[in-house]
Every structure is written in structure tokens, then in C-alpha cells.
Design a protein that fits this description.
16 helices, mainly alpha, single chain
Length: 396
């Protein structure tokens, strides 16, 4: 018994180990991609730093330049910048490896949504960095060099400058992800477009607060980050209307495609000489399930619309009047016609009993009676029973 337990424990750890091995392979590929890009760019490290420092150098006086206050800074700072640039340039490969690792665990509709969002998030991050380099940096450095006190020579340390621009690159790249975050929040049902529109004033104030925290302590850089965040938020609200899930039917239908292979028939390993796997036993269906399915199939092309409470009350009153008229008309007739009328009367009485059970909170017996009405009642009674079942499902 001990050996069996040990063997089963090893078998239970195999899926986790396989996932960890795959994660290791994906991480190695990411590191390899970054290393290849870094090896190609390392020779141009100084040129890359000169290009990144160009927005500040263009604003400095002719006799001013940047300085290095640390001994190894002239080598380490361009090396650090080249490594970070390599990570940014290899980002499509990194995102693809991440996508390939998580995609097998997603539903089909989730894959259709996540893949475009991952690609667009990478593009938006690059756009945010380009916006910071070509728009924000010239304005900030022109302002900062112009307000320097008289007699103060602006000579920025290269390490301080690198930390400054990397912070802005990351802040603007992250800020341009606002549309993706907005679409995801609406798609997951965390919030709605109407709720976000009502909270627009708070979003604007929050954008300026984020700009204050992520940018240097000046009004220009704060505004240059807050205003694009607000506009991107409006863009996210606009595009979120195309990503709203109207119902959970799609999730349930597509979820069936991702059931274990053993529940979908014989696998590839079941050859001609192997015994077929037993088919799974379907769950028991509730009483009247066939009647419900038949009525639903028959009403698909008739434009079925759920009744309101007033319409349902009027339909119940009509059924009671027809029941009374039928009982009066059936008294002198044959036994066969009396039997038919008693069947309709029984369905109407069951509907009245269902209303009493709903008021008492007894849903299970009410559902059983409704299934009987679906089998025995006429068209109007079936319509009322369907609406009551729909209400019970919504309340559940």
C-alpha cells in the first residue's frame, strides 16, 4: 500500500513538473532573445546613449556638456542603457512566449480576445515611449534649462539623466496602456461603460495625481502625462462597447470544447486492437425536459418575448375565464370532452398552485408543476409556464 501511495504521489506531481519545465524553456528563450539583441547592439552602446541624450544636449548652451561623476560611469551607463533597450526591442518575443505558455489554458473566445490585446499593448507601450522622446523631452528640457538661476551652469550627470529618462519612458509607456485596462475591466464585468462615464471627473483628477507621482516635480511633465491618459481613457470607453459580453451562453458552449479528451470519445491511442473507452453517463434530466426543449425549439422562429408582470396577470385571468366557460360548456357533453376540459382545468389549477408556492418560496415543487403544465396545458398556459420558469432561473 505504501508503494502504491508513493507511485500515485509521483504521478500527481508530473503535470506540475511538466508545466515548470515548459516555463523554464520559455524563460530561457526570452533570455536568449534579449542576449542576441544585446550582443548586436553592444558595439553601438555609446551611440545609443548619445541618441537618448540628444533632447537634453540640444537645449544646453554651446559651451556646456554632460559630466560623469563616477569612475566607471562612462562604461557602465551606456552598458545599462543598451541592456534595457535590448529588453524593449525583444518585447514582442517575450510577449509571444508568455502568450504561448498561457494560451492552452484559455477558452477559444478568450484566446481571440487576449492575443489582440497583448499585441496592441506592446504597440501602445512603444507609442508611449516615442511620445515621451519626441514630444515630452524637448519641452521639459527647454523649460528646465531656461529657468536655471543666473550663474548656474547646467551640466547633468549621465547616470542621473539615464534614471530620469527611464522613469519617463516607463511612465508614458504604462500610461498609454489605459485603453487596454479599460477594455479588460468592462469585458470582465468589473465595471460598465455607463459607470465609467459617470466617474469621468474622478478619472481626470486621478490622471493628474498619477502624473504627479510618476513624473518629475514640474507642472509641464505632469500635464503632458495626465492629458494623454485622459484622452486614452476616453478611447478605451469608446472601444469597450465592442468587447461587452451580452450573455454567458458563448462561454458555456465554448467551454465544452475544452473538456478532457476522455469525455469526447476515443483518443488517438485507441487503435483497432484497444478497447473503446466507456461513454460518460449523461446527468439525469428533470421531469418535463423534453417538453421544455420541444416548446423552445418550436418558438425559436416565432420571436418569443418574455411577458411582463401585467401581461402575465392578464393571461392568468384569461385562462381562469376560459376554464370557467369550459366547465359550463362541458356539463352536457360526453365523457371524452369532459376529460379534455378537465385536463385544461388541471393545468390552470396547477398554475394557481405555482403562484402560491412562489409566494411561499418553494421553488422545487413549483418547477415540477410547471413542467407538468408544459406537457398538459394549451398554448397560453405553456407561454405563462415558460415565463415563470425564466423568472425562477433569473432569481436563482
Amino acid at each position: 500500500m505504501a508503494e502504491d501511495g508513493k507511485d500515485s504521489g509521483i504521478g500527481g506531481e508530473q503535470p506540475l513538473v511538466s508545466h515548470l519545465l515548459e516555463l523554464r524553456d520559455r524563460l530561457l528563450r526570452m533570455i536568449m532573445a534579449v542576449s542576441i539583441v544585446f550582443a548586436a547592439l553592444f558595439y553601438f552602446s555609446n551611440n545609443i546613449y548619445t541618441m537618448v541624450a540628444r533632447p537634453l544636449m540640444d537645449q544646453l548652451p554651446d559651451d556646456a556638456s554632460m559630466i560623469a561623476t563616477q569612475v566607471a560611469a562612462p562604461f557602465l551607463i551606456p552598458f545599462k542603457l543598451t541592456l534595457i533597450v535590448s529588453v524593449y526591442l525583444a518585447m514582442p518575443v517575450i510577449l509571444y512566449q508568455f502568450w504561448a505558455f498561457v494560451a492552452p489554458g484559455l477558452y477559444r473566445h478568450e484566446r481571440r480576445l487576449v492575443l489582440p490585446l497583448v499585441a496592441s499593448s506592446a504597440v501602445l507601450f512603444y507609442v508611449g515611449m516615442l511620445f515621451a522622446y519626441f514630444v515630452v523631452f524637448p519641452l521639459i528640457f527647454r523649460f528646465l534649462t531656461a529657468v536655471a538661476p543666473e550663474g548656474v551652469a547646467v551640466m547633468t550627470d549621465i547616470s542621473e539623466y539615464l534614471d530620469f529618462v527611464l522613469t519617463l519612458f516607463f511612465a508614458f509607456g504604462l500610461a498609454f496602456e489605459v485603453p487596454i485596462a479599460t477594455i479588460l475591466l468592462v469585458w470582465m464585468g468589473v465595471t460598465t461603460r455607463e459607470s465609467l462615464v459617470k466617474k469621468r471627473p474622478y478619472i481626470i483628477v486621478g490622471a493628474f495625481c498619477v502624473g504627479m507621482l510618476l513624473t518629475p516635480p514640474d507642472v509641464i511633465s505632469q500635464s503632458l502625462l495626465a492629458v494623454p491618459m485622459w484622452l486614452l481613457f476616453e478611447m478605451g470607453i469608446f472601444f469597450s462597447r465592442f468587447f461587452v459580453r451580452e450573455s454567458g451562453d458563448e462561454d458555456e458552449d465554448e467551454g465544452r470544447e475544452h473538456e478532457p479528451r476522455s469525455t469526447q470519445g476515443p483518443t488517438a491511442g485507441n487503435g483497432p486492437g484497444s478497447a473503446p473507452r466507456p461513454e460518460p453517463t449523461p446527468p439525469p434530466r428533470p421531469p418535463g425536459h423534453d417538453a421544455v426543449a420541444a416548446v423552445a425549439a418550436a418558438s425559436q422562429g416565432t420571436g418569443f418575448r418574455p411577458m411582463t408582470e401585467e401581461e402575465m396577470d392578464a393571461e392568468l385571468d384569461r385562462i381562469e375565464e376560459e376554464e370557467a366557460a369550459q366547465q359550463t360548456a362541458d356539463k352536457p357533453t360526453t365523457g371524452q370532452s369532459s376529460g379534455a376540459g378537465s385536463g385544461d382545468a388541471g393545468a390552470a389549477a396547477k398554475l394557481e398552485r405555482v403562484m402560491e408556492l412562489r409566494e411561499q418560496g418553494n421553488e422545487a415543487p413549483a418547477r415540477a408543476l410547471l413542467y407538468e403544465v408544459l406537457r398538459e396545458g394549451d398554448a397560453g398556459q405553456v407561454m405563462v409556464a415558460r415565463n415563470i420558469l425564466k423568472q425562477l432561473d433569473e432569481d436563482a
